[in-house]
Write a structure and sequence with these properties.
The protein is built from 10 helices and no strands. The chain is mainly α.
């Protein structure tokens, strides 16, 4: 039942034009645009700097923005309540949604990596470290998505999730180097989950470093706090 529901969730995302735009088209446009046009000065080769940031952006778009908006409207229209009353338990439903997010992320990574490789990207480092960072980032963003979708009205979730997406796109080091911010701002920005995921993936895939422990700990802290709060505050109707 969990696998069937996960497959249904994936099909719903892929059939939804707005979701597809958010999860795939926008990240690819950011990748191509900022890799080919010298809008900002970045360290090293432009594609090597931008590609890990766009992968982080894609994870955030699926695990946070898309999931928050989708879950918020499912809650408003009573879909969650009806699904929770089926033989598929509420915990099973959350597991199915988690599996669906991971499946969509795998599709995103394959497509974005293929485009980046075609543009001359040369990733390095241990892919297991990158996968660990992505899983921790997915947990953190999913927790934030469920926290928002389970407490706010659907319209408020739609507005807030898109606003947060745009703010984190600008501040999270995705295309703008964090070092360009003043020190006082940088201290705060480096604690954001998108920054930790972006800088961690960049350290592994661009600089071939070992496991970026600090970035991983930041993501795990966000995941623990957000998921704990979501479990306490989430309303199914």
């Amino acid at each position: 039942m969990v696998l069937a529901q996960a497959a249904a969730e994936v099909r719903a995302v892929l059939r939804n034009g707005e979701q597809l735009l958010l999860t795939l088209i926008i990240p690819i446009l950011v990748l191509v645009g900022f890799s080919t046009i010298a809008l900002l000065e970045v360290p090293g080769r432009r594609i090597d700097f931008v590609a890990p940031g766009v992968l982080a952006l894609a994870i955030m778009s699926t695990a946070f923005t898309g999931q928050a908006i989708g879950t918020g409207f499912e809650r408003r229209y009573g879909v969650l309540k009806r699904l929770g009353a089926t033989p598929l338990s509420r915990s099973g439903l959350m597991l199915a949604k988690t599996l669906a997010v991971i499946i969509v992320e795998v599709l995103q990574i394959v497509v974005i990596a293929a485009v980046a490789l075609a543009m001359g990207w040369h990733p390095h480092g241990n892919p297991l470290w990158a996968a660990l960072l992505i899983l921790a980032g997915t947990a953190a963003f999913s927790g934030l998505a469920l926290l928002m979708a389970g407490t706010l009205r659907a319209e408020a979730t739609l507005a807030a999730a898109n606003l947060v997406y745009l703010v984190l796109l600008g501040l999270g080091g995705v295309v703008v180097p964090v070092t360009t911010f003043p020190h006082a701002v940088r201290v705060i920005v480096e604690l954001l989950p998108i920054t930790a995921l972006t800088e961690g993936l960049r350290a592994v895939l661009t600089h071939a470093s070992g496991l970026p422990v600090r970035d991983l700990l930041v993501l795990l802290a966000w995941a623990a706090v957000a998921l704990a709060l979501a479990s306490r505050t989430f309303r199914w109707e």
